Amino acid sequence: MNTFLNKKKFYLFVLFYSLLAIFFALYIEYILGFKPCKLCLYQRIPYVIAIFISFIGYSYFKNDKILIFIIIIFLISALISGYHYGIENSIFVEFSGCTNNSLEIVDKAELLKSLNNNVISCKDVNFKLFGISLAGINLLFSLLIVIYSLRTLFYEKN
User: Fold this and answer.
1) Tens of pLDDT, residues 40-70
2) Most buried residue, 22, 41, 53, 135, by most Cβ within 10 Å?
């Protein structure tokens, strides 16, 4: 019975952590006024999925497939945030969706539209917490959740 409670606690933890991460990102964007780049927005997707999956996992905690899905979700989150953190630290080159290539546009209407769109660069760190960018924090916590998930998967057998 104790292992069942541990799995339920795990899913509850992932649910509340994912909700907290999404609310914190929205707070930074809408209350503090820091606009996210495209990769920042992409990093939210695994958390939204994790909210739903962990809610299902809380109800059907005996099924290890749900736990494996959580591991995959946070591995994807670690890949996205790791790539973003690498861009911020000039390890990787920024992908074209992160830059505003308005200099290459020859049509005046397209140029005006591009200038009004104001794309935030993925390499610019606008907000830090404890000296670490949010992409770095996301990378760290995503990896920790993967490790905790693997521990739960292998050591909390039914």
Assistant:
1) 889 999 999 999 999 888 887 677 788 889 9
2) 135
pTM > 0.90? no
Q: Where in 36-146 does DSSP place strands (E)?
A: 128-129, 132-133
Domains of the chain in start order, with CATH, are: 2-155 (1.20.1550.10)
> What whole-number distance in Å separates Cα of residue 27 and Cα of residue 5?
32
